[in-house]
Amino acid sequence: MIEDVVETYSDLFELDQNLDRLVKNIELLNFLNPLNIEQEKKHFFAGKYRKNPTFKYRKIKFNPYKMQRLFFNQRLERIKDDQIRKLYQDIIYEYSGLIQCIETIGSGKNFYYNSLKVFGTPKERDVENARFILHFKDESIEDSVSKKYSADEAEAYFIEFAKRYSFNFNIKKSTHISASAMVLNASETLLLKKNYRYSDNELMVLANHEIGVHMVTTFNGKSQPLKIFSNGFVNNTETQEGLAVFSEYMSDSLTLKRMKELAYRVIAADSLIKGYDFKDTFDLLYSQYKLDRETAWQIALRVHRGGGFTKDYLYLTGLKKVYDYYHSGQDVNTLLTGKVTLENKDSILRLQELGLAHKSGHITDSFAKNQNSNKKLDFILRNLK
User: Fold this and answer.
1) Contact at 8 Å (CB) between 268 and 303?
2) How many CB atoms sit inside 10 A of residue 358's CB?
3) Residue 288 contacts by C-beta under 8 Å, 6 or more apart in sequence?
4) 310 contacts 211 by C-beta, under 8 angstroms
5) CB neighbours (10 Å) of residue 145?
6) Beta strands of the chain (E only): which ranges?
7) DSSP letters along 183-233, please?
8) What is the pLDDT of residues 184-222, one digit of tens each?
9) Torsion angle of alpha carbons 155, 161, 167, 171, nearest 10°?
10) Interhelix angle 82-103/10-23, nearest 10 degrees
């Protein structure tokens, strides 16, 4: 019985609840998406890409110093189990790093250095993988005519898609997001870009990515006895995004064009460590790689928001890790238990043995059967380093 487990591990549950109360304020993407994306895009295009955009951000509503102190005041020594104590110690350091990121949004290099501490930066191997993908010729070009669905029509599609899952979530529209869609974990909300138009394939990609994985792990995490499954393990971005893109692959909605988009994100994230500013990264993508200006803007925005945000390279590294994990015959459902990491699989299984965690209640629909029909994608994924 869960009551007996809570009593046996009362110190652990008290710490876990304390962290849960603190972490509610620090969903990074809430603060990181600029408030004036559309206005700055118009200015940037009108100025022939010569002047960097000036983004504005939400004000933070908590005291970062006090928040840091509260995190480090937690009495970790009361957790006697070494493996669990280490897990929570690493998580406190991770949350501390996220606070530093939020505190320095819009401050240029300070934010970038904090982003590096939390998310890292592409290694040379990652850049080589990206270039390897970009060598392949496009299979088909989705022209602008195919972008025929409004945000309202996309919402209807996602509502229908979600009927295969036994959870309910909110859908809201916003002009203040850099992606075409994203999940806000804390509020169980799928956010859609208000003035964006979606293609058929994009709807499939986003449904399998955002609902099929991010929403699934949101609701699985919230059903766990311990709140860290909902708030996130250390470095969970790589595994979570890897699972989400893997869901695209398994549902046969992942395309070479989409793989190239992930590769361009690695190239753009790598440009930060080379000292590129926004217009330099845009020029790299637009002039050198010949991307259309909308896509070049979008990718440059994602990596330069806040002052230099390196997270985007993790989609490709995460996909490779999850792809290899699945094809080695291991249970992917263990990675759906919440906002967890592949590297902490042993800790997850141990928590389950102790009655401190449940198996996944919701399972990603696409993981039931591999429906990928694109052999070129398998060749690429097998040969990534």
Assistant:
1) yes
2) 16
3) none
4) no
5) 7
6) 170-174, 181-184, 189-193
7) EETTTTEEEEETT--B-HHHHHHHIIIIIIIIIHHHHHHHTSSSTHHHH--
8) 888 899 999 998 999 999 999 999 999 999 999 999 999
9) -10
10) 10
pTM over 0.85: yes
Amino acid at 292: D
Tell me if 323 sits within 8 A of 215, measured CB to CB.
no
Burial class (CB in 10 A: 0-12, 13-18, 19+), 91: buried
Quick one: how far is CA 123 from the chain centroid? 19
CA-based nearest residue to 119, from 232, 249, 245: 232
**Token output for 198:** 């979606």
* Range 52-59 contact pairs with CB under 8 angstroms and sequence separation of 24 or more: 52/277, 52/278, 52/279, 53/278, 55/106, 55/305, 56/106, 57/31, 57/32, 57/105, 57/106, 57/306, 58/30, 58/31
Tokens of 305: 């928001």
- 176 by DSSP, 3-state: which? coil
Burial of 369 (0-12, 13-18, 19+ CB in 10 A): exposed
- Which residues, 6+ apart, have CB-to-CB distance to 153 below 8 Å? 198
- Mean pLDDT, residues 100-127 taken together: 94
Q: Long-range CB contacts (< 8 A, 24+ apart) of 92-99?
A: 92/19, 93/234, 94/118, 94/232, 94/234, 94/235, 95/19, 95/22, 95/23, 95/26, 95/71, 95/231, 96/68, 96/71, 96/72, 98/26, 98/28, 99/26, 99/64, 99/67, 99/68, 99/71
Residue type, 69: R
Is residue 236 within 8 A of residue 213, CB to CB? The reply is no
285: DSSP letter: I
Q: Residue 160: in which H helix or E strand, if any?
A: helix 151-161
pLDDT digits (tens, 9 = 90+) for 286-333: 999 999 999 999 999 999 999 999 999 999 999 999 999 999 999 999
Question: Which H or E run contains 294?
Answer: helix 293-304
Strand order in the sheet with 181-184: 170-174, 189-193, 181-184
CA 74 to CA 92: how far, in whole Å? 9
* Residue with the two structure tokens 């993981």: 367
CB atoms within 10 A of CB 252: 16
